[in-house]
UniProtKB/TrEMBL annotation:
Keywords: Aminopeptidase, Hydrolase, Metal-binding, Protease. Binds 2 divalent metal cations per subunit. Pfam families: Peptidase_M42. Zn(2+) 2 binds at residues 156, 187. Belongs to the peptidase M42 family. This is Aminopeptidase. Zn(2+) 1 binds at residues 54, 156, 209. InterPro entries: Peptidase_M42, Peptidase_M42_aminopept, Peptidase_M42_dom2.
Length: 323
């Protein structure tokens, strides 16, 4: 099952990532926001490159408990009410529950104010012994491999974290200092990547994230597909890719024979928070296409994630002159 780690409660994920990346870097630290930062030092004259992926998943927070032990909730991050109904969840305490809703006449009337979590408690007191007000839950379930595909909750953005781990393991010595940032609270606001960029003072930043795949039914404005390779995000609701950096990433993909899709995303990313940090940071976002994001059955192709890691390794071998 995915490690429990909703926005603002990422410690278990942080600790697991720290243990995995530590053998491959020169320095590991945690900043005041909760971001995990791992530094691989380069040679003199090289660039400072920030590679970032948020480590949290969406969830919900306990607001109130009724006399019958039902827990009412508010969303944390990108959890949508129509994705949540009927789903099993796990709380930080380990308690399990199922999300259900009060009767509504029309589907359009469904909202988080009608949603509740049933953990099998008969009374308010019994519920509060297992879940306290302010505790958080995330979608429960296992991640399964279907050939090259993976299916389950939390692929956004644990796949991005996995890509960074693979890059760190395979990087070896290189010209550039690479700061791997596994950021907190990427699902809310977001904030973590901006804090990481402020502390890292990078010359360039590349964020690895997940985005809705264009081969999901009903998604007409996105041209990506599972198995088509990672996608270079050219624009989203608040971000525009740095033209020179995007060109270098595309050149690295072509030189390495790595398939690279392009996308204009209808949703946002952390890119807009990193670009204006300090004197300005040339920023790009590489997406792993995911079908059904925010649900308990997200679907992605591992070949796209592997290609993203390969692309970053080729990119990090370039001189990174953006003039």
């Amino acid at each position: 099952a995915p490690l429990w780690g909703p926005s603002g409660r990422e410690q278990r994920v942080h600790d697991a990532l720290k243990a995995q990346i530590a053998p491959f870097v020169d320095e590991v630290r945690t900043d005041g926001f909760g971001n995990l930062l791992a530094v691989r030092k380069g040679r003199e004259g090289g660039r400072r490159v920030l590679l970032s992926a948020h480590m949290d998943t969406p969830g919900a927070i306990a607001l109130n408990v009724t006399d019958k032990g039902l827990i009412y909730l508010a969303p944390v991050g990108g959890l949508k009410v129509h994705h949540a109904v009927g789903q099993r969840v796990v709380w930080g305490s380990g308690a399990l529950g199922v999300l259900q809703y009060e009767h509504v006449e029309e589907p359009k009337d469904l909202s988080f104010r009608k949603l509740f979590c049933d953990i099998g408690a008969a009374t308010k007191e019994e519920a509060l012994e297992r879940v306290s007000l302010g505790d958080m839950c995330t979608l429960a379930g296992t991640v399964e491999a279907w050939g090259d595909l993976v299916v389950g909750p939390g692929l956004d953005n644990r796949l991005g974290c996995a890509v960074l781990l693979e890059v760190a393991e395979r990087l070896g010595s290189g010209p550039h200092t690479v700061i791997f940032a596994f950021t907190a609270q990427g699902e809310v606001a977001p904030r973590g990547a901006a804090v990481a960029a402020f502390g890292a003072e990078p010359d360039v930043a590349v964020l690895v994230d997940s985005a809705v795949s264009g081969d999901q039914p009903g998604v007409r404005q996105v041209a990506t597909r599972l198995g088509g390779g990672p996608a270079l995000r050219l624009k989203d609701s608040g971000f525009m890719a740095h033209h020179g950096l995007a060109a270098q990433i595309a050149a690295a993909a072509e030189a390495g024979g790595i398939p690279l899709q392009r996308c204009v995303s209808p949703t946002g990313s952390e890119g807009w928070t990193v670009t204006p940090v300090g004197p300005g940071v040339p920023t790009a976002v590489i997406d792993i296409p995911v079908r059904y994001p925010g649900t308990g059955g997200e679907m992605a192709d591992l070949r796209d994630a592997r290609a993203a890691a390969e692309l970053l390794l080729h990119f990090l071998g370039l001189p990174l002159n953006l003039a």
